[in-house]
Design a protein that fits this description.
- The complex is a heterodimer of chains A (584) and B (41).
- Chain A is mainly α.
- Chain A contains 21 helices and no strands.
- Chain A is globular.
- Chain B is an all-alpha fold.
- Classes of the chains: A mainly alpha (584), B mainly alpha (41).
- Chains A and B meet through α5, α9 and α12 of A and α1 of B.
């Protein structure tokens, strides 16, 4: 990295985080701190997108297209449908009840037990995920750039804690707007430069031709193949359930649109995400195709985690050299045949595919060798493809911009998680169980306010004493969750397959949470006892299936959800089970 | 508990039309991407 890159990186990251903290240094109200307030739809929409798109999205999705093609985009086909359902069903209910968190609604619909259970399921899953949001990019950046892993964890974590604690949910959403603009601009600049770096005679049409011949233009697959992870059908069904659960019931997303100035602004922000999410993912995947085509004509390393390859070379030099010779020969063959295909020679197509197969075989053998010689080294190197390309082939300044975009993606998703965890801790646990409201208080919107106006601090002079206390406790919880996330990220390297473990953990809980909300929305007669029993049985069943079956973990979302709904309806039908209580 | 104000969206006249736009855009994308898949694979 050049000095210019360091300047661009530092100025971009710190100025946006500093701006967010400074602009929101004065807390207007407990409401604006806990859920944001008065936000317009562009801020909400960009904030929703920034929350979902973590750093690993920008690191790994181009690599996924490089290795596996464009089919991953189908994973998002259910998302626009989920946005519509959330706009029609979820958001009006949240607004009508004036809730700060999604789980508050469950107490008004069922009882406090269901609210606390669901809030705790959220906090377990999201608390671990916040650590991964920090750790996942830090491990890649530290390996590629030689940065200290713990130092990178601390850098990301502390900057996020500062501006999240300072300004709360509103600062998070407003900062995310700026961050998302820089992230998207950075990715567009990267795509433009990569396109200009392609050899003469190779334009976007030729990119599609070459990558299509090598199986990378597999955008839509209508086949009903259970062994294929990404098809139109799995995307439109599984993706729909996942998006409905994530955007409709996960407080890190619900908090984004509850901060809207009105129901209209919240809906427009969600629909903005529904319209732009798939094109954005396609753009990021297309960057992977551009990098792939660039490397069809410019020799890539055998594996992109080059520190691991060099370590293996030091331990088994002759074997690595032999693999390198085969790699070089197969690459030259592939390059020549790709050039022939670009020049219109269709007969080169079969030879091109065969050369690619030889290169794939060499990569597989090299990965096996690294696993043997360097135990613990990361050999699934898709996450390293894009960052390696950025460092080696993009000009000074742009490298800094792209690294800033990746760091800001990590910060934006982590900030949402910490802010949501802080709000849930204070609203659903502290204020509900440890410091409950007097019984004559209004249940929601006005309950954090107090007629007495007492200065909480010089900066928060407009807050009532009760609000000031709420904000102070929320800040303390946010710091707690932030330090926990940094600590978890610091020790994460001691565990194997951590990212997959957290994804599995999320899938185990998400389905049950969604099931509880679907019962709340659509099964009007079901009461708290029935849904609590159903949730307990469904959660236990999912855990048993996880340990004693071969079912893929993505299916746990649907299984958990369906079990809760069916069991709740069944239990409610038993004579003597109390029905739902009336909600005024 | 108060009912939220159901303002019409700033474009297309009704929320229903806006939802149709989102779903229709999804359908259009799937169609275009499928055509690209067939064309280049």
């Amino acid at each position: 990295m050049t000095a210019l890159d360091w300047v661009v990186l530092a100025v971009t990251v710190l100025s946006i985080a500093g701006w967010g903290a400074w602009k929101n240094r004065r807390v207007e109200s407990a409401e604006s701190y806990l859920k944001g307030s008065g936000l317009a739809w562009p801020t909400i929409g960009l904030s929703i997108m920034a929350t979902q798109a973590s750093a690993i999205t920008f690191l790994s999705v181009p690599g996924q297209a490089y290795e596996d093609g464009m089919r991953f985009v189908q994973f998002y086909f259910g998302l626009p449908l989920a946005m519509v359902v959330i706009c029609v069903v979820f958001v009006p209910i949240y607004y009508r009840l004036g809730v700060y968190t999604a789980y508050e609604y469950l107490e008004q619909r069922f009882d406090v037990r269901v609210r606390v259970l669901t809030a705790m399921l959220f906090m377990i899953g999201r608390g671990l995920a916040a650590g991964i949001s920090i750790y996942a990019p830090a491990i890649v950046l530290s390996a590629v750039l030689g940065w200290s892993l713990n130092g990178t964890n601390l850098l990301i974590g502390l900057v996020v804690i500062v501006y999240t604690v300072t300004g709360g949910a509103k600062a998070v959403s407003q900062t995310q707007k700026q961050q998302m603009v820089v992230i998207l601009a950075g990715m567009l600049v990267a795509a433009g430069i990569i396109a200009m770096r392609l050899p003469s005679g190779v334009g976007l049409g030729e990119v599609a031709t070459v990558s299509g011949a090598l199986g990378r233009m597999n955008i839509v697959d209508f086949s009903i193949d259970p062994n294929s992870r990404y098809t139109f059908w799995s995307g439109i069904t599984g993706g729909f359930f996942l998006a409905l659960s994530y955007f409709g019931t996960d407080q890190s997303q619900v908090q984004r649109y509850l901060g809207g100035a009105s129901l209209t602004e919240s809906r427009l922000g969600l629909l903005f995400n529904g319209l732009l999410k798939i094109p954005m993912q396609l753009m990021i995947l297309s960057i992977g195709l551009l990098v792939f085509t660039f490397h069809v004509f410019d020799k890539p390393p055998i594996v992109f985690n080059t520190p691991a390859l060099e370590a293996a070379r030091g331990l088994a030099g002759p074997e690595v050299e032999a693999l390198q010779d085969r790699w070089d020969a197969a690459f030259e063959d592939r390059r020549d045949r790709a050039r022939a295909l670009v020049d219109g020679d269709e007969s080169a197509r079969d030879g091109l595919v065969a050369a690619q197969a030889r290169m794939d075989a060499v990569r597989d053998e090299t990965r096996a060798l690294i696993e043997r010689e360097v135990p613990g080294a990361e050999t699934k190197d898709a996450d390293y493809i894009f960052i390696r390309f950025v460092l080696q082939h993009l000009p000074p300044g742009v490298v800094g911009l792209l690294l800033a975009a990746i760091l800001m993606a990590a910060m934006s998703s982590t900030a949402s998680e910490l802010s949501a965890l802080g709000s849930t801790s204070v609203v659903d646990l502290y204020k509900r169980l440890l410091r409950p409201e007097p019984p004559d208080r209004e249940p929601s919107a006005s309950r954090l306010a107090d007629s007495r106006t007492v200065a909480a601090s010089p900066r928060d002079s407009s807050l009532s004493a009760d609000e000031a206390h709420t904000v102070r406790v929320s800040k303390a919880f946010t710091v707690f969750w932030g330090l926990l996330a940094v600590g978890f990220a610091t020790f994460a390297s001691l565990l194997d397959n951590l990212i997959e473990a957290v994804n599995i953990l999320g899938s185990i809980f998400y389905g049950v949470i969604l099931g509880i909300f679907l019962v709340a929305f659509f099964a009007k007669r079901v009461g708290g006892d029935a849904v609590l029993g159903a949730a307990a049985v469904a959660q236990a069943t999912v855990v048993v299936l996880f340990f004693y079956s071969d079912i893929g973990f993505l299916w746990f979302n649907m299984i958990g959800c369906m079990l809760v709904v069916l069991l709740a309806l069944g239990i409610q039908a038993v004579p003597g089970v109390p029905p739902r209580r009336s909600v005024s | 508990m108060t009912d939220p104000v159901e303002d019409p969206p700033p474009l297309l006249g009704s929320w229903r039309n806006l939802y149709v736009l989102v779903v229709g855009f999804l359908a259009l994308q799937v169609l275009v991407y499928w055509a690209l898949t067939v064309l280049y694979s």
